[in-house]
Each structure stands twice: as structure tokens, then as C-alpha cells.
Amino acid sequence: MLIVVALLAFTACSSDNPYYVPIDNGKTTSVLLRLDQETEFETRASVLCRETPVNLQLNTGDLYLVAPNGTIVEHFRIVVGGSPTPNTVTEIPATDHTIPRNYLRYGVRITGVPTSVRDGRVYLIGNPRVNNPTTGNISAVLNQPIVDMRHQRARNNQYGGGHLFGSAQLQRVTAAGVTPEVWAPPVCTVYNRRLLRLRSVVARIVIPDISALGKVESFSVEGVFIDNYYRFATVGGTPVPTSLRRNIADSRPFNNENLSGYPNAFQGYTWGWHSPAIACDLQTGVPITLPGGGTIFVDTRMVQLPMLGVYYQPWVFYVPAGTTPGRTPYLVFRLYDVVVAGETLPNPQFVVFNRFVGHSNPPPAFPGIIAGRNFRIAPNRLMFMEDDLRPTPTIITPTATTLSTRAIPIEIIE
User: Fold this and answer.
1) Which of 167, 200, 233 is the last residue of a domain?
2) Do 188 and 269 have their domain in common?
3) H helix intervals, 123-205
4) Distance from CA of residue 226 to its chain's centroid?
5) How far apart are CA 198 and CA 270, in angstroms?
6) What is the dihedral of CA 254, 259, 265, 269, to 10 degrees?
7) SS3 104
8) Which of 13-27, 116-130, 146-160, 370-384 has the lowest mean pLDDT?
9) What percentage of the chain reaches a pLDDT higher than 70?
10) pLDDT band at 59 (very low <50, low <70, confident <90, very high)
11) 266 and 153 share a domain?
12) Edge-to-edge strands of the sheet including 98-100?
């Protein structure tokens, strides 16, 4: 009841507000909403390399019904609980301002919504860790920089699950003049019904293996790092420009000593460490696609993570999205005991992969990191030769003789 009073007080004194939309409390409409209960954030394209599924689930959240110009018309807190009747839409009055999460599985119809929401939008901020605004303009909500890398993995971890975000234009479901009037998100082509789909606000990068060619006889992987990435993002998934981490350019060390470039709190999210280092295995007859077309079969030395059950586990990292040119993340491998033509090189050695294209023929330009998507490198495509090795992480200008600095095909998976 206190929330309702606050809303009425806001509308009563907001005539000078450029975002203000008059709310006629004598006329109302209704909004029908249904969500994906949970969505899987995993890859399935590889036969031998697959991680344990990581489910994303809405635990708590903030739901906003917004006028066409961005004014928040109604706010609802999504809370744990609810005992819905299967396949039955539950009616909830707008004055409740609380929606039990479980009701969203089969759908809710929010009644008594002011008509200023017509042709507006619906927003849902899933698993927030701040107190989001409940009145004003939706931009104040979307621009909050709250996404923390440590919160993105498990659906029910100590942080309450990964950050989720969903938004959709509201469309009139009922014909004009028909009562009760109902508005809802568009029909989702995947499920052929009206749904508000939630996505993670970060992207996920999956690396199945790394291989060596040429004169490299053996090597071990001690560390794997993401560089040139954004550390923070807003509620809506937009990277915070000041949070860009360029550890190669800033000459930061790539190790496991809990330094500013790679604090221990982000291990498993933007970097991984192996002690002891993982040694390579000989892979016989691996198909290699030549730059001008055609395929050859060569022997390579490959490192994969140990098997879990019947599958190899890939390296998996999480970063906020970023489509700005030059902001594609780099993959940095810290190698140990590298043997080239019978000689063991000084420890450590580094190889950097920094050029990517889309996974098709001919390969399209890489669009950048997109929130809520899996970015996956195919097996046997991340390769390096002896000319690519450096004692410190280095961006190498591509040449005709280096395989690792050629563009690496990367798949974008929903």
C-alpha cells in the first residue's frame, strides 16, 4: 500500500517532468506475461568436448511496465514462491506490486494497469543485487553498472544466480474495443507463443583445446587468460567503458598471484590456472584447412582439460558484451616446458590469439561479443607454431607463415 501511495504522489507532482505521462486512474488495461522458467547456457556442437550444463534461472527480480517514452508506469518485485495451477494463467492486480516467481511459468495477467502502458514495453531485471529505482524513467534502471563477473556461473549460487535481462514491445492481443483489453509481448518464433525471453547479460566463451604444429615437439598449458575485455556492465548488458581491461597493453603479469589484472576472485571467469601444468598428447591425422582452400592431415600436439565422465571439459569464460571495433577479447595461453626442435625454451612462453571471424565459408566479419550468446571455437582450430611463441604476451602482426595469427573461426550459438 505504501508503494501505491508513492506512485500516486509521483504523478501528482510531475507535471514538469519531461518523461511524465498522465495516468488516468479511471481507465485501466491488462498485461499478459509468461517467461521461460529457465534456459540452458551451454554448447552441444562438439562430440568429444562438452561441459556439464549450466542452467540460468530467475530467482528474484524487478518487473517494469513502461510507457512509450520510458516512464515507469508500474513496478513489481519478483519473489520466490507461488503455487500455480498447471497450464493456468493467474490474475494479479497491479496494486499488489509483487509477483511470485512460479506463477510466471504458466503466465500471469496483471489487471488494473493504467492505459498509459499501451504500446509501451516490459522490462525484467533478473537476480539483481542492488535496489533498483521503482519510479521515474527506465533509463535510470538500465544504466546502473552492477554486473559482477563472479555472479554469472551457477543458477543458485551464493550470489543468487547470474544476471538476467529481458525486454519486449507490448502488443495489443485483443481487438480494439474488446474487454478485458490485454497487451502482451510478441509471439516468440522458437516456442510459437507469447513469451518474454530472458538472457544472460554476459557472453560466454568456450575453448575446447589448443594445438601445436611445426617444430613444436611438446608443451604444457599452465594458464589461460582473457584479455581486452570489459570487467563491468550495466543492468541492460552495456559494457562500462571505464572498466576495459587491457592487460597486455598495460604490461600486467599473466600469473596466479592475485594482482590487479587477474584477481583471484575472477579465477574461472576471465582466467584459469593449472598446477601442475597440463601436458600435451599426440593427435594423429588432424585435418587442417589451408588458407587458399583444401585440407591436409598432420600430426599435432594438443592440450585438453581432463575428462569428466565421457566428455572433455572445455575452458569456459564469461565477459560482458562489447561490439566496439578492437574490443574483441584476446585469448592468452601461458605455456610451460615448450620443446622446439629438441630444445626446451625458457619458462614461461606465451601465445596470443586475437583475430576471429564467423564460422562459415567464406567467413564473415566477426560481429563482436553479444550478450547472452555462446561463442565457441571448434576443436582443432586453435593452433600455434614455433614462430608464435614469445617470452611475454605479445600481439603478433599476421604473416603468411603463422597459423595462430590467422583469423580463428568462432561459432555463435544461441
Assistant:
1) 200
2) no
3) 139-142
4) 15
5) 23
6) -20
7) helix
8) 13-27
9) 71
10) confident
11) no
12) 98-100, 72-79, 61-66, 121-126, 164-169, 199-200
C-alpha cell at 401: 607463415
CB atoms inside a 10 Å sphere around CB 237: 21
Which grid coordinates belong to 41? 547456457
Whether 96 and 176 map to the same domain: the answer is: yes
* Residue from 234, 58, 230 nearest 130 by CA: 234
Please tell me whether residues 194 and 226 are part of one structural domain.
no
Question: Amino acid identity of 132?
Answer: N
Domain containing 73 equals 2-200
101 with 212, same domain: the answer is no
Give strand pairing partners of 171. Answer: 184
CA distance 19 to 120: 13
Q: Are 349 and 374 in the same domain?
A: yes
The confidence score (pLDDT) of residue 372 equals 74
Q: How far apart are CA 34 and CA 50, in angstroms?
A: 31
Task: Tell whether pTM > 0.85.
Answer: no
64 shares its domain with 139 = yes
Nearest-angstrom CA–CA distance, 20 and 10: 10
Could you say which of 200, 225, 244 is where a domain stops? 200
CB 61 within 8 A of CB 125: yes
Same-domain status, 176 and 235 = no
Give the separation between CA 234 and CA 144, rounded to whole angstroms.
Answer: 5
Cβ proximity of 4 and 156 under 8 Å: no
- State the greatest distance between any 2 C-alpha atoms of the chain, in Å, as a whole number: 85
Residues 262 and 270: beta-carbon distance below 8 Å: yes
Question: How many domains does one find in the chain?
Answer: 2
Average pLDDT over residues 139-166: 68
- For the chain, the C-alpha Rg in angstroms (whole number) is 25
Identify the sign of the CA torsion 397, 400, 401, 406.
positive
Cα–Cα distance for residue pair 252/310, rounded to 1 Å: 38
Closest CA to 121 of 185, 176, 78: 185
Query: What's at 143, amino acid-wise?
Result: N
Q: Please, which residues bridge with residue 357 across strands? A: 365, 409
Q: Cell for 136?
A: 521515474
Residue 156 CB coordination number (10 Å): 11
